[in-house]
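user: Please review this fold.
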Amino acid sequence: MANWSTKRRWVQEAFEALERAGYHVGSAYTAVKDPGRTTFVYRDRLWQGADMAGLGVASFGHVGGVHMQNLDTWEAYSAAIERGELPLHRAYRPTSDERLIRELVLQLKLGAVRPRYFKDKYDVNILDRFREQFASLRAESYLTEASDRVVSLSRPGLLRIDALLPRFFLPQHAGIRYT
């Protein structure tokens, strides 16, 4: 089994090959040929707090301000459906601060965020609120810019974003494993 260093190298090599072929890296997981013509509504809207019903085993959804996850085995999921019940495993209504953090960590997977978006939506200056987290990313060369205009990750930061995001979590959410 490949270690994380090898996996990151493979993704970097894949991104470089795609970029040579005219693609643009759109997130830690996607590249598109023409970002002006291609949209990924699921990612772009959901990562800004839009509603989405989760369909399928262990699927996550976000509806009416409630974050939820379906049952995580086929047997339990299909049995609930057959009984005419919603196949929900858990649900949680996040606070405004938790919604801010959720959107920030999801949008950081795009490689850059606009602080103005969070100021307009949550009336929070993320550069102040997450000063220590951004400073640590910069010190580790994972952040290339943190200004009022944009917060941008370096390519190495983008390639390990999932491992970097827990530093933004509230203490009570750190260390939780999601299925």
Observations:
- The chain has a mean pLDDT of 93.
- The beta strands are 24-25, 31-32, 60-63, 66-70, 88-92, 112-113, 143-146, 151-153.
- The radius of gyration is 18 Å.
- The chain has nine helices and eight strands.
